[in-house]
Request: fold
Amino acid sequence: MISQEQVLAALRNVEDPDLKKDLVTLNMIKDLKIEDKQIRFTLELTTPACPMKDMLKNACLNAIKHFVSQEAEIEINITSRVTKPMDTTQLKAIRNIVLVSSGKGGVGKSTVASNLAIALGADGAKVGLIDADIYGPSVPTMFDLVGAKPSARETEEGKTLIMPIEKYGIKLLSLGFFADPDQPVPWRGPMASNAVKQLFNDADWGELDYLIVDLPPGTGDIHITITQSFPIAGAVIVTTPQQVALADTRKGLAMFRMPGINIPVLGVIENMAYFTPQELPENKYYIFGKDGGKALAKSFDVPFLGEIPIVQSITEGGDSGVPIALDPDNSIAQSFAEIAGKVAQQIAINNARTAGNVSSGLEIDAK
Reply:
């Protein structure tokens, strides 16, 4: 007879490569049931976007076969419970707020934020997206929602809550939903900050695993307001390879490390990394320079999350309101999926470190 003790002892030999502890100690083995040679259990990961789910599943199968019985019939159900930072007294139903930032406009930050949100949602996570770019809100265009207006509901306490618009499985709010798209809005600092805070505090987001926030370019009032008002899981930095963009991005990245802000930087994404003609898919032309994002990540000792090339279909997807990440067969969509997995991975590592589940000296391996 196979016992639970035997199976758990075998699974103690399977280590999560990020958290550096075995799956049993991390309480990731759930609902273990044994009937004769049949073994069934649930492997609960820290995110549905875990890039190592297949590797961990195979490691569990091999461990049981090796340490328990070669004849065991094993059924593993994979699920997830997204972790969150310890200090989340505000917005308790939102597990992780992730900022997407750049020091410079025009680097494709909003495109990255939109496709990152969709890629996280494609893996089964509950995702929201706030377009906090008060000067040039892009989410209404990228999700084909220009002119859309959110509805509202009143709570039992008499408070009016904004209802995010849901599209492609993503809950969305943008300051662009509340302004005429053809009219400029001359925001002053306090007005802009209060408007952005309302998108967090006065909206019915429900339960979310990740709330992606598309920040304005630069390092202004909106950045300070959000980082000092809400518990932030981390920031993703978007840049292009050329030096003029990197100079500004460097300042934007350094802002998150200032003592009064101190937000974990999850990594750097290099957008418009190279151009590949559709008729010559093996050719790469580095028209804006090469490896600038990698060099930036290395200089700040943060992960390099990946590179996105210049491709016409990315532009067409954003302009038509159908982001490219919605096409799972597209190679660019697959790149966004890989980046989303790395972002979720870094969040899980940081959350585990905060909870004391990993060593504070752990080197993040996503470079």
Summary: Confidence is low (pLDDT under 50) at residues 359-367. The longest strand covers residues 265-275. The chain is about 30% helix and 25% strand. The CA atoms of residues 132 and 301 lie 28 Å apart.
